[in-house]
């Protein structure tokens, strides 16, 4: 039995499914998850000493690669001053100032420890601010695992949602309406009937949890207009795309200002930090100033803040996103070209340091399109690439991530391996 297999068997005895977050279990692609021992730059190594080019980057945070010397140094410095105080620090002000400076709509920001906490708290704040209960989300967008957000569309359009997880009560799910991403007409129809009783619309302004799906400009513009007209709080969940598609996030790239923004992943550089922030008048409703309660023992943890600040400083350097975007586009283009030469129905897309690969002839625009892609073929591709030492996301429904240390040489090597795999797929 291989070392990964024996670790997986051992893990399953004391950890449900052997993992601490479901997608790590390789359920959709099959096979044995790799247990990672260490990482450096664009690579990580499993328990058998096999090296992989890492295209998940901890699902987004590792935008400057693993163990970047400046981030490592900042973390080491912070560690020597103490792990956690439960009292404020100057570094928390610095990261708040940096976030407010970089993200156009954020006037005030509160740190939390996970993206789930950020979205859950932003929703409570929007409900407290508006005095309304209903929220809207979009099919295929993931916003963490708070009850109101584990919801799928009901039987008819514009109806009450149904839980997607056992343990979410139908009464809670019923307050969430699930609409189709990029469907402006449906959005208008919804606001026409229920807009005035809707507290918030939460959206991934670039979607990365149904593989990568880019928004249409018309969709984002309609969201902003309709929310303003109906007094509904527009929440951009930029946990994944913030500081990933552009320095100021999707809102800077598309020029649309939400009322609240959720951040995570990159702002912690691999440590557990997330945040929500936005309009000063809304943020003023948070405890200790206002009536909406929210708190956290480890919120603003000094070691995590140090990693986040060091990462933000690196990505704010001139040219960072131009380079990262060019690298990521090189990967997407190279994979598409290789598939076309082999005669495999495939497409790829990228934006900033995020990419999507689809076993479908055209880049999808909504969740239903992604479900139409050739998922068994993706699974075969995934395993062949894994054997070749290339670690893509282990699911056809996930986006991929490139870091600033994935050099052109690393990317070209990936494309060369993919070329070989595409030819065997076509045969
Ligand atoms: N929102 C988005 C857009 C995400 O991608 C994720 C996690 N992938 C979350 C929220 C939840 O974040 P966390 O896993 O840190 O709770």
From TrEMBL:
Query: Does the keyword Ligase belong to this entry?
Result: no
In the UniProt record, does the keyword Disulfide bond occur? no
Q: Keywords on this record?
A: Cytoplasm, Isomerase, Porphyrin biosynthesis, Pyridoxal phosphate
The protein's matches in InterPro entries, at most eight in alphabetical order, are given as: 4pyrrol_synth_GluAld_NH2Trfase (IPR004639), Aminotrans_3 (IPR005814), Aminotrans_3_PPA_site (IPR049704), PyrdxlP-dep_Trfase (IPR015424), PyrdxlP-dep_Trfase_major (IPR015421), PyrdxlP-dep_Trfase_small (IPR015422)
| Main subcellular location | cytoplasm
Question: Would you identify the family this protein belongs to, as annotated?
Answer: Belongs to the class-III pyridoxal-phosphate-dependent aminotransferase family. HemL subfamily.
Descriptive protein name? Glutamate-1-semialdehyde 2,1-aminomutase
User: Which species does this protein come from?
Assistant: Pararobbsia silviterrae
Gene transcribed to yield this protein: hemL
